[in-house]
Structure formats: structure tokens, C-alpha cells
Amino acid sequence: MSDSQIRVVFEPSGRSLSASAGTKVMEAAGRAGLAVAQPCGGAGVCGKCRVRVVAGAAEPTQAEAEKFSASELADGWRLACFSRLTRDAVIHVPDGSLLACHQQILAQRQHGAASDVQPAVRKRYVELPEPTLADDGADLLRLEQAVGESFTLGLDLLRRLPGLLRQAGFKGTAVLADGELLDFEPGDTRGRCFGMAFDIGTTTIVGSLLDLTTGREVALASGINPQVSFGDDVLSRIRHSGSPAGLDDLRGSVLATLATMIESCCRDGAVRREEIYEAAFAGNTTMQHLLCGIEATQLGAVPFPPVFGRGLLLRAADLGLPIHPAARAYVFPVIGGFVGGDTVAGILASRMADLAGPVLLVDIGTNGEIVLAHEGKLLSSSTAAGPAFEGARISCGMRATRGAIEKVNLDGDIELATIAGAPPVGLCGSGLIDLAAGLLRCGIVSPEGRMLPPDELPTTLNDPLRRRVMEADGSVLFAMHEGLNGDGPLAITQRDIRELQLATGAIKAGIRILCKQAGLQTSDLQRVLIAGGFGNFIRRDNAQRIGLLPTDVHHEKIAYVGNTALEGAKWALLSTTLRAEAEDLARRTRHVELSQDMDFQMEFAEAMIFPET
User: Fold this and answer.
1) CA-to-CA distance for 339 and 333, rounded, in angstroms?
2) Which of 28, 212, 304, 529 lies at a C-alpha separation of 20 to 30 Å from 156?
């Protein structure tokens, strides 16, 4: 394991982490949850990933020398896709370099002109004339006249409104959303208007607290989806939801985690829960059904129909969210039984429908969602990749937390890098991909996925790596590290390689089927966008070496677009126009059920074989 760990702080977000020496700034930013734009796929030609290294700047590369003036280079300006960490660093990431900065989000409208933040929730400060004998109009009419529009309101607020108006001296802030009065607050509270965006993943939940007046992210929280205790895949949870009290178990567990995350964001952002007036949720179809407490058993049987297709606008209180009592909750539209709101959010946030195509979007995770945009049409599918990329069902696998081996290089001997530089305790998904690619290059694993025993290893294999190949209990394994506390070595086994083949083969076959239905070859793809929190951490060359990404697409056409599910949820909070666009995209996208394609089984069997080179 490399002992050279570097501390890097990203400004103005304040996010920090430890990374191995030599890590690209782009990769470190992704690990910190910052999606830096790289339209050229990291080739260093577009210059969109500009960052300023305030402290700890590396020597500029030739590509950077061509993009920046001498004074800019001296001031620390670098390209995130080229610059590497060599020592502790402080790095400023300007808004214009972020894929999802709200100015950039709303400026990239299909029809041109930049648009301001236009959330559904808005506040208006009003001063009403107090009632007199000469002016004894109704309170509501008086308020409507001051606000400048008519509105509806709930009975609870109607009952409280007379007292609120008089306690405030008829001066206060009306909180409105889509023609509804949510609240009337004493004084001028226009600067205190917030919303929460959530990505409800099968394994991980991420939440972002946004200022709805500026679009600025105030705080971020993430955690494990507690539903994993009921099964690490959606089918297990669908089955559990059909058991007595099963649906309540699943819904209650995720709501408890959401409440904790809301509390954490409020604490970090110095925001009161009552100042959060809307929440937006993007997740796969099953996760969204379970969140809402909607029957999900039909999603586990052919033809897998969802209960709802269009987005839902609900009372947050009905969901059980501890935010403003009258707040609303927007749940993303879904495309099909296994292609949900997270995919719709990904299509929206990546702007793939607007790019010159064909363009492929791949969200790699427990469920591998794939979308193809070509000639104005959108095709989507979902593959049961399984939880291997999340570390599950791998003998020494673990999630991407402290001590997880997240980077592997087989060069002479094995080189490992772990999250936070901690002693290695297991292998996470990105490390698994690196290791498998290295074993294929060294000839320790065959294209068929067979891990060769010591007596069959290539004669060209060096001794340090040869000594790591062992046999135990009739199985071959490759030892990565001696392990801790006498628990034996951390090793990858033949069974682990088979699990990886299943996960990789499912996604690879799905990509081929979508391309076939569009009349394309994978070599025709002009751009491949890798989405998802996990996707930020995989190395493109290694993902192509194991066949996870098409091998006949040049690596410069492959770009990371970050957690587009969360970004799309943010956009839905910040713009009613983009929320409407999400609804349109969901209805435009054709869902392809892979199992119904005559060639799928053959494609899947062939995709299980690793590429020869």
C-alpha cells in the first residue's frame, strides 16, 4: 500500500479528503462529490475543467501551458483532467467549471437564453392596510390584493391566518407554490427559502440542501440506504414488501434515514427545518414506490408495471418528512418497471438529448441503467448488474468507505490505494475493476474468466505477482495484502471473478441490445457518459479492459458526468421549466425490456467473456 497520502481541500465548498500521490484533481474532485465539467472526456482540449490550485500546485503539463498564460499558470490555474496531486493542496473550483452549477444548468436551455432560478416555491413580502370601518374587506381578499394574485390554501392555514396577520401587524411574507398559499410569516423572510433534493439509491442515499433564492448548495449529506438489511437488490425488497408489515418496514427505515440527513443538513447549513418548503426525490422505480408506501409487488412479476408514470406532487407531511408542515414533495416520473426517476433525472442533467449523437448514458450500480439518444429518439433499459460493484457478494468486498481498496495497479508488484489512506480492510467496486483488468493483462485470468493455478501461469509473469497466486480448499486465489489482526490475506477468488463477469456481462449485453435496436454498432457512439457516484471513480481504460465499457469507443469520447440523479433532483427544485422538461423526457423515452429481445441471452453469454485485448 502506498504511504504517500495527500490532504486536499476544495473551495468554496470546504469539502476535503485524502488521496494518493499522483491522483488527478478531476478524480479527487469526484470523490469529494464535485462534478467538474469535461466535455472532451479528459483529453485536455476543451479547457472547461479550469481550477485554481491555491496551494500545492504541481508543475504545469504541456496541455496546461497551451491553455493558460504564464501569469495564469503562476497564479495556480490548472486543468483538473491533467493536473495531479503531488502534495497537500487547496483547490478553488469556480462555478463555471462545475457540470451542475445552477447558472450553467439553467443557461443550457434547449431554446437558448439563460434563465434565472425559478423554483415552484417563492416568497413575497407584503404590507397590508389594517381593516377599518371604511375598509372592512376580508382578510384573504386583502392578502390576495397585496400579493397580486389569487391563491388557494388549506383549512388549517385558513384557521390560523387571522391571528398570523394581526400578530405580524399586517406585515409579513407570503409563501406561495403553484397558486397555493403555504404559510404567512411575520416580517421579511424572503432570504430564507430552502429545499431538499434526494437521490434514493438502492445502496446509498444522498441529500442536498439548496437555497431556493440563489440555487446555492448549502449542505450535503449521504448514508447507506437502510433497506439493505432487507436485501441488497430491488427484487429482494419487492418480495419483502409483500410480506405482512413488509412495506411499512421498508418505508419506515428509509424515512428514518431521511430525517437524520435533513437534521444533519440543517445543522451544517444553519437552517431550521421549517424553512424547507419543498423536497424532490429521484430513485429507481422500486425505491420511489417504497418511499411513497405504494404497493410494489407487481414490479416483481411480468410485465413489471409501475403504479405511476408521471411525477407525483405530494404533501411532505403525508410522506412523513420533518420539514415545513405545508411543504410539498416532488417524486420524479418513471419510464418503466426498472427504469425510474433516477434515469429521468440523469437524462435531464446530462443534457444528452441535446448532444450530437449517438450518445450513451450508463449509470453503473446495483441496477445498471442505460439510455441511448439517437436522431431525436431515446431508448432505455435496465440490467440486473447485481451488487458486485458495491462490494457485495465479493469475498473481501466492501462499500467505498474508510479502508476500502479503491485503486489497484499491478506493475512489478501490486500497488494499492485506500480511501482516507487507512490500512486496507476490503475491496470496493473501483478497486475490483482495476484488479480484474490487471489480472487479465498479466495473464493470471483468462478471457473466459478462469483464474489460472500456479502451475499454469505464463512464463513471463514476474516472481512478486507469481507468489500471490495460491490454491486453497481446491480454489485459486490472488492475495492482495497480508490482512489485519491475523484474519488471513485479503484475496480475490475465482468465485469473485464470476460475480464480476455476471455484472459486467449484464451491462455490456444491455448496451449492445440498445444499439442493435437503434440500428447502430457500439463503434458508432460519439459519446459515452458515465453517471452515478460510483462511476466517478472507475478508470476508463480498466473498465474497457474488462468489457464494462465498449472497447471500440475511443477513451476521449468517454466522460464522467457525476451523480446525475442528484443533480436532476436539484434542477427540479430550482426550475419549474426543467421539471416540466423531465416529465416530457420520461414520456418520450421508449422502455426496452431486454428479456423480450430474442438476442439477449446470446448477447449476455458472449458478454460474459472478457475482451481478448
Assistant:
1) 10
2) 212
Give CA–CA dist 152/142, Å, rounded: 14
152 strand-pairing partners: 180
Distance CA 185, CA 326 (A): 13
Sequence-separated (6 or more) residues with CB below 8 Å from residue 583 = 310, 311, 333
- Cis amide linkage into residue 119, ω under 30° from 0: no
Q: Tell me how far the alpha carbon of residue 612 is from its chain's centroid.
A: 31
Burial 11-37, CB ≥16 within 10 A → b, else e: eebebebbbbeebbbbbbbbbbbbbbb
Whether the Cβ atoms of residue 280 and residue 197 lie closer than 8 Å to each other: yes
For residue 349, give every residue at least 6 positions away whose Cβ sits within 8 Å of its Cβ, in sequence order, or none.
100, 105, 561, 564, 565, 567, 568, 571
What are the DSSP calls for 264-304, one per residue?
Answer: HHHHHHT--GGGEEEEEEEE-HHHHHHHHT---GGGGSTT-
In angstroms, the Cα distances linking 82 to 28, 224, 518 are: 12, 32, 35
Give dist(CA 73, CA 57) in Å, integer.
9
Strand residue runs (E) in 188-336: 194-200, 204-211, 217-224, 276-283, 312-315, 328-331
- Give the whole-angstrom CA distance, residue 222 versus residue 408: 26
CA–CA distance, 445 with 132 (Å, rounded to integer): 88
Question: For residue range 202-258, what is the model confidence (pLDDT) as tens digits?
Answer: 888 999 999 999 999 999 998 888 988 888 778 889 999 999 999 999 999 999 999
3-state helix vs strand vs coil in the chain, percent to 5:
35, 25, 40
Q: At residue 287, what are phi and psi to the nearest 5 degrees?
A: -60, -40
* C-alpha to C-alpha distance for 446 and 611, rounded to whole angstroms: 10
Query: 465-470: which pairs have CB atoms within 8 A and are 24 or more residues apart?
Result: 465/410, 465/413, 465/414, 468/414, 469/444
Per-residue pLDDT at 544 exceeds 70: yes
- Give per-residue pLDDT as tens, 491-539: 999 999 999 999 999 999 999 999 999 999 999 999 999 987 677 678 8
Taking the C-alpha atoms of residue 96 and residue 83, their distance in angstroms, rounded to an integer, is: 18
Of the candidates 286, 236, 245, the one whose C-alpha atom is nearest the C-alpha of residue 386 is 236
Q: How would you write 74-101 as a 3-class SS string?
A: HCCEEECCCCECCCCEEEECCHHHECCC
Q: What length does the chain have? A: 613
**Phi and psi at residue 554, in whole multiples of 5°?**
-60, 140
pTM, entire model: 0.81
For residue 199, list its beta bridge partners. Answer: 206, 282
Q: What Cα–Cα distance (Å) separates residue 422 from each residue in 4, 409, 429, 430, 538?
A: 11, 17, 17, 16, 20
In this predicted model, what pLDDT tens digit does every residue of 149-179 receive, in sequence order? 999 999 999 999 999 999 999 999 999 999 9
CA atoms 120, 126, 131, 136: torsion sign: negative
Name the grid cell of 365.
450500480
Max intra-chain CA distance, the chain:
103
Q: At which residue does the C-alpha cell 454498432 appear?
A: 521
Q: If you search the block for the grid coordinates 441529500, which residue do you land on?
A: 207
